[in-house]
């Protein structure tokens, strides 16, 4: 019978995804980019919508929330998973509202206006059944997938507006988005790039090799040299792992140092981050904010004698406060950090901030 | 209001206005509005706090929005009364919502600095204590009415270690604290706040020490003012109503409130969510436009 087979197939895929998440984070599996993670999460959610059994929007949202909580628990530092789940939940709400015929814009958010005019403590329970809802939601998720695929190109297209000839650009570590951004600008302009290697994983080396293959003059420096070299830099362009709700960043370690050096020299700090990295978290809230990996990278296990006397930490992420950031370039254009709250309200519904 | 000291003055004001609305015998909407404006002025004449004025203005706005929808006066009044009751219900839950949002920012071992007596801050700290977090609080005495001592008493009842410090000792104590949480009597359009005198000082010092400065306020405190500096805040908010009536020379009186600009505030916790100061004007526009 196709019914139970589909269900077991679905649960199998979900389990495979979860174990992949758990492994991928601990460094043993292949290191995935956030874009890939976002795409896989969205395809999985589309599959759940198509194959799971649900009769009303409320049921579907419950199922997605449940699976979502498990996915987030598998790898809390991978915020794109949570972001995609919230996007899909918002899509479901919108499609439901559209099917009901009510205007979707004003009904969604809490506001002072709503406080005064709404007729009752509106408990939308999404219980009504609409036959076209499934198809609509799947179509909307497909649109989301197309958007995801185009993000890097959309960001790279804006490169020529920001990079001018004979400029010195600084970046840190390796970001696929920034790579595409710089390569796109290199087609028409000549400029120089300085890459901070970003110890201990030294992703900067790979970035430098890839950039120089495209004919860009690249220099690699150690993290300690960032401040010293900063006076000669025109712009700092970096990627990030997550953009937080207050406009701050959770980026690879060493970014805060880079941001402070840039502020000191009044060098603009530009972040290339696609919209799926925007997360409704605030920096002080959770204990899962930081992620530590094996200190083997910092002090190898061969240094046995020292290890017993010394505490070694290897944090992966850094927090950068919004005051140090000049501009965010995303697939929908450039924004100031103080505008992030507005983008968040467009992408996610406030009730979904806590799944 | 004296009977229920836990109620915010704005809520009491709105309740009074609602009562007034019920008893009003006016025949036209315009007459109704005039009477309500007169009533609001009376209220501000007695207790000139920002919150009362913002609550009153919100109520007036609510009346005009409702009156646009229904033409017939009697039906209009009935709808208004219903919605008024609902409104009161919603805002009574707003403090709980704010507490729910804010308490996650308080972690074990946090040292908090607060100013004067604020019921919202008290509710937040209550919630954090209920979640079994260990934290300690420094409260400023907040002269001239020593409201800080009242706050300290209330906190002691919750078994929270609390120390009362002089208003002048804010700079001295800031190196020990982790974050600053204060309430607000009014939130202005720029995202800044109006609060008991001494708040601005605390904000400047915490900026200098790089400590996060959090404000907790309910949404009905949003007010349509845009002060550019301390002098810009209207006199009727700065001094008590009796002072305004009796005293000839205001320059000899001490103001009761001050204005803190948005550049010094890290985040605002309201029942509409956690907002950055730039998001506040957006919320106000949504209402008044």
UniProtKB/TrEMBL annotation, chain A:
GO terms for biological process: animal organ development; central nervous system development. It is found in: Cytoplasm, Cytosol. It holds the Pfam family IF-2B. One of its GO terms (cellular component) is eukaryotic translation initiation factor 2B complex. One of its GO terms (molecular function) is translation initiation factor activity. Keywords: Cytoplasm, Initiation factor, Protein biosynthesis. Its main location: cytoplasm. Gene3D superfamilies: Translation initiation factor eif-2b, domain 2 (3.40.50.10470). InterPro entries: eIF2B_beta_subunit, IF-2B-related, IF_2B-like_C, NagB/RpiA_transferase-like. Acts as a component of the translation initiation factor 2B (eIF2B) complex, which catalyzes the exchange of GDP for GTP on eukaryotic initiation factor 2 (eIF2) gamma subunit. Its guanine nucleotide exchange factor activity is repressed when bound to eIF2 complex phosphorylated on the alpha subunit, thereby limiting the amount of methionyl-initiator methionine tRNA available to the ribosome and consequently global translation is repressed. Belongs to the eIF-2B alpha/beta/delta subunits family. PANTHER family: TRANSLATION INITIATION FACTOR EIF-2B SUBUNIT BETA. Component of the translation initiation factor 2B (eIF2B) complex which is a heterodecamer of two sets of five different subunits: alpha, beta, gamma, delta and epsilon. Subunits alpha, beta and delta comprise a regulatory subcomplex and subunits epsilon and gamma comprise a catalytic subcomplex. Within the complex, the hexameric regulatory complex resides at the center, with the two heterodimeric catalytic subcomplexes bound on opposite sides. This is Translation initiation factor eIF2B subunit beta. It comes from Scophthalmus maximus (Turbot).
Automatic annotation (TrEMBL), chain B:
The keyword Protein biosynthesis applies. It is found in: Cytoplasm, Cytosol. Component of the translation initiation factor 2B (eIF2B) complex which is a heterodecamer of two sets of five different subunits: alpha, beta, gamma, delta and epsilon. Subunits alpha, beta and delta comprise a regulatory subcomplex and subunits epsilon and gamma comprise a catalytic subcomplex. Within the complex, the hexameric regulatory complex resides at the center, with the two heterodimeric catalytic subcomplexes bound on opposite sides. This is Translation initiation factor eIF2B subunit alpha. GO terms for cellular component: cytosol; eukaryotic translation initiation factor 2B complex. It comes from the Eukaryota. Acts as a component of the translation initiation factor 2B (eIF2B) complex, which catalyzes the exchange of GDP for GTP on eukaryotic initiation factor 2 (eIF2) gamma subunit. Its guanine nucleotide exchange factor activity is repressed when bound to eIF2 complex phosphorylated on the alpha subunit, thereby limiting the amount of methionyl-initiator methionine tRNA available to the ribosome and consequently global translation is repressed. Belongs to the eIF-2B alpha/beta/delta subunits family. Keywords: Cytoplasm, Initiation factor, Protein biosynthesis. The lineage of its organism: Eukaryota, Metazoa, Chordata, Craniata, Vertebrata. Its main location: cytoplasm. InterPro entries: eIF2B_alpha/beta/delta, elF-2B_alpha_N, IF-2B-related, IF_2B-like_C, NagB/RpiA_transferase-like. One of its GO terms (molecular function) is guanyl-nucleotide exchange factor activity. It comes from Scophthalmus maximus (Turbot).
């Amino acid at each position: 019978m196709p019914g139970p087979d589909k269900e077991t197939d679905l649960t199998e895929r979900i389990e495979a995804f979860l174990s992949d998440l758990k492994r991928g984070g601990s460094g043993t599996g292949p290191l995935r980019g956030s874009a890939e993670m976002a795409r896989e999460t969205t395809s999985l959610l589309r599959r759940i919508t198509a194959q799971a059994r649900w009769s009303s929007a409320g049921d579907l949202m419950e199922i997605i929330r449940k699976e979502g909580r498990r996915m987030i628990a598998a790898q809390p530092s991978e915020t794109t998973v949570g972001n995609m789940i919230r996007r899909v939940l918002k899509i479901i709400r919108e499609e439901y509202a559209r099917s009901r015929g009510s205007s979707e814009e004003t009904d969604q958010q809490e506001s002072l206006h709503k406080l005064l005019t709404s007729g009752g403590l509106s408990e939308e329970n999404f219980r009504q059944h609409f036959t076209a809802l499934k198809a609509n939601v799947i179509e909307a998720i497909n649109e989301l997938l197309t958007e995801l695929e185009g993000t890097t190109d959309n960001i790279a297209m804006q490169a020529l507006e920001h990079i001018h000839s004979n400029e010195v650009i600084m970046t840190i570590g390796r970001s696929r988005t920034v790579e595409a951004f710089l390569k796109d600008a290199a087609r028409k302009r000549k400029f120089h790039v300085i890459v901070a290697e970003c110890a201990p994983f030294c992703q900067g080396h790979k970035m430098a090799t890839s950039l120089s293959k495209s004919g860009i003059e690249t220099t690699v420096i150690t993290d300690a040299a960032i401040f010293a070299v900063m006076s000669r830099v025109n712009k700092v362009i970096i990627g990030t792992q997550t953009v937080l709700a207050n406009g701050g960043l959770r980026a690879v370690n060493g970014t805060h140092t880079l941001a402070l050096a840039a502020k000191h020299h009044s060098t603009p700090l530009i972040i290339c981050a696609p919209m799926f990295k925007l997360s409704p978290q605030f920096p002080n809230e959770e204990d899962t904010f930081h992620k530590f990996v094996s200190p083997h990278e910092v002090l190898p296990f061969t240094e046995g004698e020292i290890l017993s006397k010394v505490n070694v930490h290897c944090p992966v992420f850094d927090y950068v406060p919004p005051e140090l950031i000049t501009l965010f370039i995303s697939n929908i254009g450039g924004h100031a950090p103080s505008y992030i709250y507005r983008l968040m309200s467009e992408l996610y519904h406030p009730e979904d901030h806590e799944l | 209001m004296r009977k229920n000291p836990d109620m915010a003055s704005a809520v009491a004001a709105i309740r009074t206005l609602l009562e007034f609305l019920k008893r009003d015998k006016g025949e036209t909407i315009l007459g109704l509005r005039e009477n309500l404006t007169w009533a609001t002025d009376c209220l501000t004449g007695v207790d000139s706090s920002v919150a009362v004025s913002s609550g009153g203005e919100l109520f007036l706005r609510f009346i005009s929005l409702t009156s646009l929808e229904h033409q017939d006066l009697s039906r209009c009044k009935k709808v208004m009364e219903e919605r008024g009751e609902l409104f009161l219900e919603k805002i009574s839950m707003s403090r709980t919502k704010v507490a729910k949002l804010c308490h996650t920012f308080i972690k074990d071992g946090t040292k908090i600095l607060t100013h004067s007596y604020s019921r919202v801050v008290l509710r937040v700290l209550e919630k954090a204590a209920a979640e079994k977090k260990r934290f300690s609080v420094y409260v400023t005495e907040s002269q001239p009415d020593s409201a800080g001592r009242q706050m300290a008493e209330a906190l002691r009842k919750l078994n929270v270690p609390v120390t009362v410090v002089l208003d002048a000792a804010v700079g001295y104590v800031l190196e020990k604290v982790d974050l600053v949480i204060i309430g607000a009597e009014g939130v202005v359009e720029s995202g800044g706040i109006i609060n008991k005198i001494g708040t601005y000082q605390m904000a400047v010092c915490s900026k200098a020490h790089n400590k996060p400065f959090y404000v907790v306020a309910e949404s009905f405190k949003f007010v349509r003012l845009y002060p550019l500096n301390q002098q810009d805040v209207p006199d009727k908010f700065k001094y008590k109503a009796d002072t305004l009536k009796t005293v000839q020379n205001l320059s000899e009186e001490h103001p009761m409130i001050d204005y803190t600009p948005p550049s010094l505030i890290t985040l605002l916790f309201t029942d509409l969510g956690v907002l950055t100061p730039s998001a506040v004007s957006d919320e106000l526009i949504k209402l008044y436009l």
